[in-house]
Design a protein that fits this description.
229 residues, alpha/beta, 7 strands, globular
């Protein structure tokens, strides 16, 4: 899940809630400073975000809206790229085998998906070519130095192929939801992972963990059922 304070995020996710564009925009009104929505239709996302940024409606700055996707296919970036908002990609792992484990719904190689993102960025205005690679960092699963270096290579490849683009890596320490295998990494490991990325010349942030009370996981990871309370 992606939640930013002072921003609005739309996360496309087929197996959760099916919300129309009107339902999404109505949901913004009570709490415009922080909002998360799961939207089934990519076209509905574009309509909703366009309404949010419309000066005659909510008038939100494009820099304050982020559209995040796990990228079910390479064309997802092109469609979502029509939104007047920043694009974010829930990567979780660059290695194809590991990503398939973490995101079982994925059907495409990372190179193919990356190419889709690059083409979408090329078609955007320069001020909207800033994109985010999101990683739910899991202890002993995707938090190795090798994983970090693969992220660096991926980020630099995107910036090289999409002229004028800027890539930021957003690390999200995995919330402990009682999964038998997936655990929260130590802050030492998280900061070590971040250092490898920044030393590689890529901007990298660590997001403050939120959602523990709700046993929140992140963007279509294979985390299984919630633990019974």
């Amino acid at each position: 899940m992606i939640i930013f304070r002072g921003a609005i995020d739309i996360l496309t996710r087929n197996e959760l809630f099916q919300l129309s564009a009107s339902r999404v925009t109505v949901s913004v009104a009570p709490c415009p400073d922080s909002f998360l929505a799961f939207v089934d239709s990519k076209c509905a996302v574009v309509r909703a975000v366009s309404t949010m940024a419309d000066r005659r409606m909510f008038g939100l700055a494009q820099s304050k809206i982020t559209v995040s996707t796990v990228a079910p296919d390479p064309t997802a970036f092109a469609t979502l790229g029509l939104s007047p908002a920043a694009l974010a990609w829930s990567v979780h792992a660059v290695d194809d085998t590991l990503r398939k484990t973490l995101v079982p719904t994925t059907k495409y190689k990372m190179q193919t998906l990356k190419n889709g993102l690059v083409e979408a960025l090329k078609a955007r205005s320069r001020k909207l070519r800033r994109t985010m690679l999101e990683v739910a960092l899991i202890d002993g699963v995707n938090d190795s130095e090798k994983d970090a270096k693969l992220l660096v290579a991926m980020a630099k490849s995107i910036m090289t192929d999409a002229e004028g683009s800027k890539v930021v890596v957003n690390l999200i320490p995995f919330n402990d939801i009682g999964h038998p295998t997936y655990r929260t990494p130590s802050m030492e490991n998280v900061l070590g992972f971040q250092k490898v990325i920044t030393d590689g010349g890529v901007l990298c942030y660590v997001r403050t963990t939120r959602g523990d009370e709700e046993n929140a996981a992140c963007g279509q990871l294979a985390t299984g059922r919630r633990r019974k309370g």
